[in-house]
Amino acid sequence: MRKLLIIGAGGHGRCCLDIARDMDIFDEISFLDDNQINKIINDCKVIGSIDEMSSYYPEFTHIHIAIGNNKLRSKLLLQAKEIGYSLPILKHPSSVVSKYASIGAGCVLFPCSVIEANAVIGNCCIITSGVVINHDAQIDEYVLVNTGTVIRPNTRINKYASIGSRCLITMNKEIEMNRIIEDGTQI
Q: pLDDT by residue (tens digit) across 18-28?
């Protein structure tokens, strides 16, 4: 039986819940969230707080960190790995991923995202709806790329960067670690 815990029941967590359900591979899905314990959110129960993560293993063997804050997401991912959780890729059925692309553990690919040939996506990245990552682009771990952004070929996005909605990162550019790029920016 495949049981998935989603860490975080906020807006991003609810989107991840939809994607996990659309994948139709999990027999049971529950949330952990510090602020909504024992609530039912989108027909999914919040069974405990985030700091109780270890107590649900091995009853739940799969976990997804649905936290938008890149550094907190990385901290929680490391804790989950130490406990022994499996970190599945949540990939919406409408997303398109080249068989030559590489997607890291714990990533989420929202509807209509496109990952082209030889693109590399690091662990625990959030790739939201309508994002296009062109061939040979490299996205380091714990990066957030928001809706409608295009990342052109041979581009590198360093760890913990956050790219706003409808941005264009042109060819051969490098985005620094921790950089926050505002919506609509072209670089």
A: 999 999 999 99
